[in-house]
Amino acid sequence: DWSSDVCSSDLLDFDEKIKILKDIFLSEKEIIMHNANFDLHVLYRYVNIYPKKIFDTMVAAHIIYGNNRKI
User: Is the Cβ–Cβ distance between 49 and 43 less than 8 Å?
Assistant: First the structure.
């Protein structure tokens, strides 16, 4: 059952991983990512997945702290 909040797919074959990713990313759950721009580009380009709800922690940190690198 992949409906839990956290999952690992290291032991599955590629097609199983893609199905799980689609189930997760296309659900109504908010996906938390860091520097999501790169990952989203790869997901969309190679497996045609684009999540509905995304929270990018890198963008959030930039909004909150600006360019302050001391964090």
Answer: yes
